[in-house]
Amino acid sequence: MATQDFYQILEVSKDASERDIKKAYKRMAMKYHPDRTKGDKELELKFKEIKQAYEVLSDPQKRQMYDQYGHEAFEQARQGGGHGAGGFGGGGADFADIFGDVFGDIFGGGGRRGQARAQRGADLRYNLEMSLEDAVRGKNVELQIPTLVECEDCDGSGAKKGSKPETCSHCHGAGQIQMRQGFFAVQQACPHCRGKGKIIKDPCRSCHGQGRVEKTKTLNVKIPAGVDTGDRIRLANEGEAGEHGAPAGDLYVQVHVREHPIFARDGNNLFCEVPVSFTKAALGGDIEVPTLEGKVKLKVPKETQTGKHFRLRGKGVKSVRTGATGDLICKVVIETPVNLSAKQREMLEELENSMGEGDEAAKFRPKEKGFFDGVKQFFDDLRS
Length: 384
What we know:
- The protein folds into four domains: 6-93, Orthogonal Bundle (Helix Hairpins); 124-257, Chaperone, DNAj Protein, Chain A; 264-335, Urease metallochaperone UreE, N-terminal domain (HSP40/DNAj peptide-binding domain); 353-383, no CATH class.
- It is 30% helix and 25% strand.
- It is built from 13 helices and 15 strands.
- It has helices at residues 6-10, 18-32, 34-37, 41-57, 60-69, 72-79, 95-98, 100-103, 132-137, 278-283, 342-354, 359-362, 366-383, and strands spanning 124-130, 139-150, 166-167, 176-181, 184-189, 198-199, 212-223, 232-235, 251-257, 264-266, 269-277, 285-291, 294-300, 309-312, 328-335.
- Residues 76-113 have low confidence and may be disordered.
């Protein structure tokens, strides 16, 4: 028995509240616990004094006796080997009660618990593949979801109709039992009820006591306009049914948009390549460009080169989040004519000859001259 004043040991005043005493004990016990002091006997004795002080001051009845009679109030019980209300062997402070919130996750649950809670149903994921057109416009889809649903015969209790699950006599409905290891109390699932807290002696024949049965349910889901690959739609309580009446999980619809033969998507913008004949590119003119809403006319200026981009405002995708509409960006690809007749080849040769050679041809083909001048300069630099 410590002879130093218990209030001094915990470094609290005599009018300290129960909460202040608990906080002080928690702070000091963490500091002087044997696992931290590494076998220091003096500090180990200090820890024992701290624990004894808390066992008294945390119990209103013991604290009242200590305030009135001091240490002598417990001497008789200690000398007689007593471990009742006045001693330190029973009741007292449970290290797991004090540090349950700190060590709860490590030891499978902290402090004292009430009735065991039935486990919430699992969340489900459904991978939905869509065309670009459906993703842009939105669509109502019908999904077939294989899942676990609440048993109708027993209303999810798992017990046969007319009977009820009984409270486990071993864990008294807590679903866990406590095993002590020194100052620590380790909790584990009750082996008799398997952590449920209840035992079903007369199980339902339809679900065999599980409270859930397998079923494929049909859901009509509205996919909003503008969704894209990677977007996820949450349907609350449409996942698996919970155990024994617990809440159901959620269903997450994962969107995947298939590749389109014409358009590529980047955010709210659409991209496409538009083939243009070399004569149309040289002379200019109107061409038809596809959009998701139909064809539109695009004016191509004369002397247009491959790779030039044209932006059609508001012809992209409407954002599912902001409502802003993106653009359609068209990339021009000059198409070289094929399957020419003899007369057509002759006309092209005549055109080629009319442009001349060297510096004379540069004004008609400036990129060509610039490219070859750059190549010549490159090799000249290598030789020097």
